[in-house]
Automatic annotation (TrEMBL):
Domain Nitrogenase/oxidoreductase component span(s) in chain numbering: 22-444
Keyword Transferase among record annotations: no
Lineage: Bacteria, Pseudomonadati, Bacteroidota, Flavobacteriia, Flavobacteriales
Name of the molecule in the record: Nitrogenase component 1
Organism superkingdom: Bacteria
Originating organism: Lutibacter holmesii
Coiled coil residues, start to end: none
Keyword Mitochondrion: no
Length: 459
């Protein structure tokens, strides 16, 4: 049994190589998943450039993100003037249906009153027929991670548009921060089971787009304003993840808002990675639809179990270090438990204070896991040296640790900056779990093969 490592008081008060990304980045991804929406970063040019660069490198798609372009003068007198200019420019250049505004550290420190500023802009421009919808989210990066920005932006959109009306048979799905491939898979599952859904956000095509030879200022796809309005009238909301935006105790999720304001029942599930979590998801769909899981998915489940049997001798008893967003690592650990991999370190840059509690309650691991939130990559590296895992599972930012220690890295989640196909990694459902299982098993097999003194080509 692995012993929990006692961590002394941190020698560093600063973060060294953060295992998280900046808050408006999460908000920007959500705004990219809304039809006709342009994200606008309210802050300095560098914030928008960093977010744009980061997203393009992972998704390999054009990611237009506007900026209010703060200068020294703005930092002293506030960002109202710049925001007004940016809104005019973005409206003229893109003719968007929505501009999604995410604040930055600087505008938050200045204390720009976004509600008041946008109210003034709308009043000043009420005769302008091209005036788009304006939605903003407060995303101070010193108070959270990209995950907070993501969930808070979803809340802001639902809060801005959800309108009470006649109840429908729609199911709201709030998948959280998954890959475009995961969103495409989710949509297919709902279609196959015959359920109409409203997915917020839906960047399944926008951030994994087809080549048309034409540059599209506003790529097709995304959740529509009409769908956002209708979220108030759906039969239920399904929300993946347990930590969500709860690092701020005052935060509410979109599904919680719809339940408390419009009586739309909220169903909260683990991200469906692994058989147990995917079974729970399909059981929920069966109970909502009153239909059995389609044969296609029963077959996928059976094949996955077959793969578990085939591969257990390569994965069972291996030790893993897992890092990433809090809800993502919770789901990954649940999957690793069922294939017999011991997670020796679970780390996240998130600091909700909930990670340990949720893992103990929802995953109930059979062995001791060192669970550390508010962890950075340097701390992960130091702990890896002590724990000597067989595999590291997480995004590409941990590559330097894997390289230095000679431990293989299975790349999952976000960001993947040193490989192609980050947007095509499927993590969820039986199909996504199958892909993860093969990836992890083959990564371990390759390491054994590379370290073999004789080399072999048959196993
Ligand atoms: S200043 Fe704040 S908002 Fe801007 S990139 Fe840095 S962390 Fe993100």
């Amino acid at each position: 049994m692995e012993k929990a490592i006692e961590h002394k008081d941190k020698a560093f008060t600063s973060t060294r190589n953060a295992c998280k990304v900046c808050t408006p980045l999460g908000g920007s991804i959500v705004f990219k998943g809304i039809e006709g929406c342009v994200p606008l970063i309210h802050g300095s040019q560098g914030c928008a450039t960093y977010i744009r660069r980061y997203l393009i490198s992972h998704y390999k798609e054009p990611v237009d993100i506007a900026s209010t372009n703060f200068t020294e003068e703005t930092a002293i007198f506030g960002g109202e003037k710049n925001l007004f200019i940016a809104l005019k420019n973005v409206t003229k250049q893109y003719n968007p249906k929505i501009i999604g505004i995410a604040t930055t550290c600087l505008s938050e420190v200045i204390g720009d009153d976004m509600r008041k500023i946008l109210h003034k802009y709308k009043l000043d421009n009420k005769e302008d027929e091209t005036l788009p919808e304006l939605v903003f989210v407060n995303t101070p990066s010193f108070m959270g991670t990209h995950v907070n920005g993501f969930h808070d932006a979803v809340w802001a959109l639902v809060n801005a548009f959800a309108t009470s009306g006649t109840t429908t048979q729609n199911i709201n799905i709030f998948p959280g921060f998954l890959s475009p491939a995961d969103l495409q898979h989710l949509k297919q599952i709902f279609t196959d089971i015959g359920l109409k859904t409203i997915m917020t956000p839906d960047y399944s095509d926008i951030l994994d787009n087809e080549y048309t030879g034409e540059y599209e200022k506003l790529p097709k796809g995304g959740t529509t304003i009409e769908e956002l309005q209708q979220t108030a009238n759906s039969k239920a909301s399904i929300e993946f993840g347990y930590v969500l935006n709860k690092s701020n105790s005052k935060s509410q999720t979109a599904a919680e808002y719809l339940e408390s304001t419009f009586d739309v029942p909220r169903i909260n599930l683990n991200i469906p990675i692994g058989i147990k979590a995917t079974d729970a998801f399909f059981e929920t769909l069966e109970s909502i639809s009153k239909k059995e899981t389609p044969e296609k998915y029963r077959k996928q489940r059976g094949k996955l179990i077959d793969a578990y049997v085939d591969g257990h001798k390569y994965v069972f008893g291996k030790k893993a270090v897992v890092y990433g967003e809090e809800d993502f690592v919770i789901a990954m650990i649940s999957f690793l438990e069922e294939i017999g991999i011991e997670t020796v370190l679970c780390a996240s840059g998130g600091s909700s204070g909930l990670l340990k509690k949720v893992i103990q309650e929802k995953v109930n691991p059979k062995h001791t896991i060192n669970i550390n939130d508010n962890f950075d990559f340097e701390e992960i590296a130091e702990t890896c040296k002590e724990l000597k895992p067989d595999i590291i599972i997480g995004n590409s930012k941990g590559y330097y640790i894997a390289r230095e220690l000679g431990i293989p890295l299975a790349r999952v989640g976000f960001p993947i900056h040193d490989r192609l196909g980050g947007s095509r990694i499927k993590h969820i459902g039986y199909e996504g779990t199958q892909a993860l299982f093969d990836l992890i098993a083959n990564t371990l097999i390759q390491q054994m093969q590379d370290n073999s003194p004789v080399g072999y080509k048959y196993m």
